[in-house]
Amino acid sequence: MAKEDKKRYEREMKSYVPGNKTTEESETIEVEVPTKTENKKTKTTKKVKKPKSAYQLFMIDSREYVKESHPDFAFGEIQKEISRMWSELKEKKKTGDEEAIALFTKYQDMAAKCKNEYYRKLEEEGEIIDNRIIEEDPITVTLPPVEDILAVETKPKQTKKLPKKKKKVPKKVVEMDPEELIDELFED
């Protein structure tokens, strides 16, 4: 088969003249091929982002402080510290600490404003019919920074070092029968 193809190729190349096309070859079909950018669907509408919660707003405000206080903390440790601070703030609020109550209320009010703005945007987009605005202007409270209210205690990073497991190797391996060796190794 390969020999026949080679002979046919050589025969056709002898009669080939560049630019001289037969009628079969001159008939071309133009096909429009879309480019990669044309294939992608374009987003015509932007979705309105959901409102941030009080905790998310607290986290945004507190992240820089925690980073500066603990430069050696990894991302997950920073999040844990912020979570601990938020829990502490909630506990202080429950005990009646006025500064903690004011700070907690501040973030609740900020969250309410975000929620109101979210519903306004939804209404503008025509995605919401009924009015769900909580209140027009929540109470604003001026407070000292978070780090002044919460006494952030620095906790050193604790790592648990597990003792290495020692393999049970019989002392007299050479003298032992293989069955006894297996029994001793796998006895637990």
Largest sheet: none
Radius of gyration: 37 Å
Q: Helix and strand string, N-terminal first?
A: HHHHHHHH
pLDDT averaged over residues = 75
Overall geometry comes to flat
Number of separate helices: 8
Can you give a write-up of this model?
The protein is an all-alpha fold. It has a domain at 54-149. It contains eight helices and no strands. Helix 4 packs across helix 5, helix 4 (54-69) crosses helix 6 and helix 5 packs across helix 6 (98-125).
List the helices and strands and how they pair.
Blueprint: H1 2-15, H2 23-26, H3 36-39, H4 54-69, H5 75-95, H6 98-125, H7 146-149, H8 178-185
Helix pairs in contact: 4-5, 4-6, 5-6
Features:
188 residues; mainly alpha; flat
Provide a quick synopsis of the model.
The chain is mainly alpha-helical. It has helices spanning 2-15, 23-26, 36-39, 54-69, 75-95, 98-125, 146-149, 178-185. It is flat.
